[in-house]
Design a protein that fits this description.
Elements (H helix, E strand, L loop, with lengths): L10 H15 L2 H31 L5 H32 L4 H4 L18 H16 L1 H20 L5 H17 L1 H17 L10 H27 L1
Length: about 240
């Protein structure tokens, strides 16, 4: 398995040289930007996107059940990413695929010190698992997350540290973990977050005070409407 994509005649290696070749023609400052973005920036952007979505969900009017379910889906996004990376550990050990710059000359390697195996890409796995988990919770934010994940995959090839199939494998692994385990995660996390919602101190993690106030106003308004309707019926 270690010899996967070692021949320069296959499409995987050809695409690697095509994408990585862009780094040779690009100005030095652009390569440095891609290096930072591909190594740290997009992962941070994905985390901030999840936090942004959570901030909006907890302020949305709705009952305790709906809020707990929505936040549970968001909590699952980073958990799915962590589980997917753990699943990748035995996969890497089984495939034992060297980094592309160890087997192919002439690559522009933007990040040094990569000594672990190449297949599957952890960065691609992390970002795609979080993107798919986010898509399950909120489609609009999820689409942005998917765009970030695709850009991450491109950056890893551009940087010369992964084959295209490393990235595709990471996308597949992240998607599989996020989708297949989502029902189990929802079943386990939703009751926990319902309990958190009832906590005087931690409840705002699930529903903001404004959302709770809106729910109380709705209950009062609904009660008054029902009483008024009953009074009209009696008067009739």
């Amino acid at each position: 398995m270690a010899g996967l994509a070692e021949s320069g005649s296959n499409p995987d290696v050809d695409l690697l040289y095509d994408i990585n070749g862009l780094a040779k023609d690009a100005p030095h400052w652009l390569d440095r930007i891609v290096e930072f973005v591909g190594e740290y920036g997009l992962l941070l952007a994905m985390v901030l996107l999840v936090v942004w979505c959570w901030w909006g969900v907890r302020r949305r009017p709705g009952g305790a059940d709906e809020a707990a379910s929505s936040v549970a889906a968001l909590v699952w996004a980073p958990l799915a990413a962590g589980i997917a990376v753990l699943v990748n550990v035995p996969i890497r050990g089984f495939v034992e695929r060297p980094r592309p710059f160890l087997d192919h000359r002439g690559l522009e390697v933007l990040v040094s010190g990569k000594t672990d195996y190449s297949f599957v890409s952890d960065h691609a796995t992390l970002t795609m698992a979080m993107a798919v988990g986010l898509f399950v919770a909120n489609r609009a934010f999820g689409l942005v997350g998917l765009g970030i994940a695709l850009l991450e995959g491109f950056c890893r090839i551009y940087m010369g540290v992964h084959y295209p199939t490393d990235v595709v494998g990471g996308f597949a692994l992240g998607t599989a973990v996020a989708l297949l385990l989502s029902p189990i995660a929802s079943m386990l996390l939703t009751p926990v977050l319902k309990a958190v919602d009832r906590s005087p101190r931690l409840g705002t993690l699930v529903r903001a005070r404004s959302a709770r106030a809106g729910e109380r106003d709705g209950i009062v308004t609904g009660t008054r409407t029902a009483i008024a309707a009953e009074e009209r019926d009696l008067a009739a």
